[in-house]
Design goal:
Blueprint: H1 2-22, H2 39-49, H3 71-79, E1 85-90, H4 97-111, E2 118-123, H5 134-140, H6 181-186, E3 190-194, H7 195-207, H8 217-226, E4 233-235, H9 238-247, E5 251-253
Parallel strand pairs: 1-2, 1-5, 2-3, 3-4
Helix pairs in contact: 1-2, 2-3, 7-8
Length: 254
């Protein structure tokens, strides 16, 4: 848990360090008026401080104990005062979702001037695979579940994009090269993971003999959970969590 927490803090620190340079033009990045201004920054601090348990040895199919998911982080998302707030239903890892998230960020932050725009990428289905570390991909041969469409989790590979004040620079973080999970995290996107998807992926791995430890279902699901990328928010089930986020005022996007 401490390792995951340090990773989340490191990701946050990189984002906070980059923000003044990336958004250095006040005319392009003016925050929304009113009490919500600065709320995205406050949320990111809260998420970085929220504990992430990543030392599971066994997990059940249906979670009932709040200690089995990232309850504090999820509650912070539900209570966030950012405006506007949008939850994205992401199901296909090879779909255009990272590009859509980047475009939404650019439109909200630069066109509409909403610096406190919050996007939550709620990942399940094959998109859940994007939130596992490369170690998990290697150990369980996760690429084999995608029929050759991907050979590694390239979505979490860090791009070295220099901070820029030119929002139209095609080589900067606001262009297509910014379509990576680390870059979008630094811009404030939150990636929510799905326990139900993890359980189902574990069943597929066992059925295909991709279980190098010979682990039981509950143990394999626990190991995958322990290898979520730093900063991800584990939910007991993303589809159900989407309903909670909508009830808290989030707009739905797919």
């Amino acid at each position: 848990m401490q390792t995951a927490r340090r990773g989340a803090l490191r990701t946050l620190g990189m984002g906070l360090a980059a923000t003044p340079a990336l958004l250095s033009d006040p005319a392009q990045a003016a925050p929304s008026p009113g009490p919500a201004a600065g709320s995205l920054h406050a949320l990111r601090l809260a998420l970085a401080a929220a504990p992430r348990r990543r030392d599971f040895t066994s997990v059940p199919a249906i979670l009932r104990d709040r200690a089995d998911w990232d309850d504090a982080a999820l509650r912070a998302l539900l209570a966030a005062r950012c405006s506007p707030r949008q939850v994205w239903n992401i199901t296909e890892i090879t779909g255009p979702w990272l590009n859509l998230l980047r475009n939404a960020l650019n439109t909200q932050q630069f066109s509409f001037g909403n610096a406190d725009y919050l996007a939550v990428a709620a990942c399940h289905g094959s998109a859940q695979l994007a939130l596992f570390t490369q170690h998990a991909w290697d150990k369980y041969k996760l690429a084999s579940l995608l029929g050759g469409k991907m050979t590694a989790n390239t979505l979490i590979v860090e791009n070295t994009l220099a901070p820029t004040t030119d929002i139209n620079d095609p080589n900067g973080p606001y262009g297509a090269k910014g379509n990576t999970i680390p870059t979008l995290m630094r811009r404030g996107v939150v990636f929510a993971a799905c326990h139900n998807a993890i359980w189902e992926i574990s069943a597929k791995l066992i059925a295909r003999g991709l279980n190098p430890d010979g682990a039981r279902h509950a143990a394999l699901a626990a190991d995958l959970t322990n290898h979520l990328i730093p900063g991800a928010v584990l939910t007991p089930g993303v589809v159900g969590a989407i309903a909670e986020l909508e009830r808290a005022g989030y707009a739905y996007a797919a």
